[in-house]
Amino acid sequence: MRKALLILLTATIAPTVAAAQSASKFPGTAEDTLSTWSFVVENDYFANTDENYTNGLRLAYVSGQREPEGLSAFIARKILGAGRDARIRKGFAFGQSIFTPQDLSATAPLPEQHPYAGWLYGEYMVVVQQDDRIDQFTIEAGVIGPSAGGEFVQNHWHTLIGGETAKGWDNQIGDEPGLVLSYDHQRRALLEFGDAGFGADLTPSFGFSIGNIQDNARVGLTMRIGRDLTNDYGPPRVRPSLAGAGYFSPTHHFSWYFFAGAEARAVAYDAFLDGRMFHPGDPSVPSKAFVGDFQGGLVTQIRRVQIAYTYVLRTEEFTGQDGAQQFAAISLSAKF
User: Fold this and answer.
1) Which end of the chain is more exposed for a tag (fewer CB within 10 A), N or C?
2) What is d(CA 195, CA 22) in angstroms, rounded to the nearest whole number?
3) 101 close to 110: Cβ distance less than 8 angstroms
């Protein structure tokens, strides 16, 4: 499956690369007033496993450039330091993440494996672009536990595809409202070659999250090579992740790039491993203080549509975990 997706994405690019090198400018991009809608699915099925972080879904909307008002103006100007010439966007997202142990057939608790957990949330974000840097502030609010619908989504999907249903969801982490505040900064250093928009760049990043679901600090670096890299800051992902800014601004009818990146996270608290913050007694495992993500993939944009494939290797997140986890993310974004 993983190889087939890479072949499909490469095949999308190959026939049009020659023509794209001389493609005309994309109309109406001097001021990017169009919104970006994106849908991301992350799943370890692409790595032939079904354990730990097993599925993530996220549907997001990011506005075009606009003058902020109310809460977005306060966040942009007072928190993120947006200047007069800053390009400001706001957005909303809805998502779900699902976690399971390695053994899906056991009905009894599995104290040395990842607890069952679901996280259902809404997200509000403000994105400020100034020169070649991006600052983002996000607020996630939702619920962890049975009300997040993890059991329903996983077992109905497995029934639909003829897979094994998970038997131990009665042992999942219990209900608790969740709130997470996050800040992320990215600064792009771009080097272009020739007149066709081909180039390479490095984008260091840092950020933090604080709340009763996840507390961590992170640093990362993304390297890209391809055409029209100024379109975006990397593909969208599901937190925690080394992600882009949630939008793209096409300047040509066609662009593409390959990317590779790494992120190191210092983790103070993870409700999916440590259990609920305000309701002790949940299933839990000893979480590790440092976790790393390594990722690589391909992004292609045709007119107002962008498709991305990301393959991720995540180091062990808890004591007793059976090696690093691998999964993939596929995103589809469109401008309206």
Assistant:
1) C
2) 9
3) yes
Cβ-in-10-Å burial (0-12, 13-18, 19+) of 67 comes to exposed
Q: Give me the pLDDT at residue 108, please.
A: 94
State the Cα–Cα distance between residues 98 and 200, nearest whole angstrom.
35
CB contact at 8 A, 68 and 76: yes
pLDDT value for 21 = 41
Report the mean per-residue pLDDT for the chain. Answer: 90
End-to-end CA distance of the chain: 31
In one-letter notation, the amino acid at residue 122 is: G
The per-residue pLDDT for range 132-149, each reduced to its tens digit, is 899 999 999 999 999 999
The rounded distance, in Å, linking the Cα atoms of 158 and 166 is: 9
- Radius of gyration of the CA atoms of the chain, in A: 20
User: CB–CB of 179/212 below 8 Å?
Assistant: yes
Calpha distance 232→123 (Å, rounded): 20
Asked whether the beta carbons of 56 and 238 are under 8 A apart, the reply is yes
CATH code for position 79: 2.40.128.140
pLDDT of the residue at 16? 39
pLDDT at 315 over 60: yes
Read off the tokens for 227: 């055409």
**Residue 194 pLDDT:** 61
- Report the C-alpha gap between 200 and 143 in whole angstroms: 40
CA distance 89 to 87: 7
Question: Are 65 and 88 contacting, i.e. CB atoms less than 8 angstroms apart?
Answer: yes
Q: Are 43 and 54 in contact (CB under 8 A)?
A: yes
Count of domains for the chain? 1
- Is 89 exposed, middle or buried (CB count within 10 Å of its CB: 0-12, 13-18, 19+)? buried
Task: Please write the tens of the pLDDT for every residue from 222-234.
Answer: 999 999 998 999 9
